[in-house]
Amino acid sequence: MKRALITGITGQDGAYLAEFLANKGYQLFGTYRRSSTPNFWRLQALDILQKVTLIPSDLTDMSSLLEAVTISDPHEIYNLAAQSYVGASFDQPMLTAEVDGTGTLRFLEIIRHLKKNIKLYQASTSELYGDSINRDGRQDEETKFLPNSPYAAAKLYGYHIVKIYREAYGIFASNGILFNHESPLRGLEFVTRKITNAVGKIKSGFEKKLKLGNLESARDWGYAPEYVEAMWLILQQSKADDYVISTNETHSVQEFVEEAFAAAGMDWEKYVEVDELLKRPKDVVHLRGDNSKAKEILNWQPKVKFKKLVRIMVDADVKRWKDFSQGKQFPWDAFNYPENIDIKQRTKLK
Q: What is the pTM of this model?
């Protein structure tokens, strides 16, 4: 039986990857950060929590990572843990560098010193590109990187240190350059989920307005459960390499808003306001991937495209808030976000 260690298993990708690998018959281990409020709702939502051995760990702490590797003795490590919110990286640039940059180096050093045949998947990101594009307007494995945020800069270090250790020490380490990938399990700090959650709340009468920043930013949005399959495929190859995972389509935040409200039968212009304070100090304008290499070598390509993705997310959030309005269930992750404190007070939920 193969053993896999997933860092950041409580996040969107970690939960979906755990579900995917469990169905493949893997023995699963996952790291999580200790906190005052355990954040296992995604694993519970996918009914996967009982199949995972959880190990408290932190990418800034070498000893805890070594202990996680020792306990799990993995064939594969999926390094998904990160400070993954671009906006927060401007507020916490040094923490972002420690977690997203040198956190990757710590794993590579552990593998190098243990001299074990462990395959490492590094979660890279399309944010590496910034506004750099090819002549056809797409970004592939050969496109120049121009990071636009502390998050992207930290991830760029992680990307290059993976390549250096792969070439210098023969470690099987691969980067998955994943473009934006969303789902009903996405955190509310990300704009896609912020939008669909607001649609659900407005539809059920809990909110009246949605405030957003830059509506013109364009992203290549895919469906997270499909992208975790690509992660697995990357580690099943005979040779370590780097791959772009994307849909090859670009849509703006405004298009996402329009599609989301339309899916719930509402006119977005009646509910959405632009707040200048929500705009980032520096933002990537346009991201559009080219998954040709993944399609050719991994035999991977996305099935869920933009409109279907938005519909999946809207339907889930509308159902969550409808169920709550009928006294059935509180939305899974609502307790974790200050914007819902008024709802907690109104319903006297603790």
A: 0.91
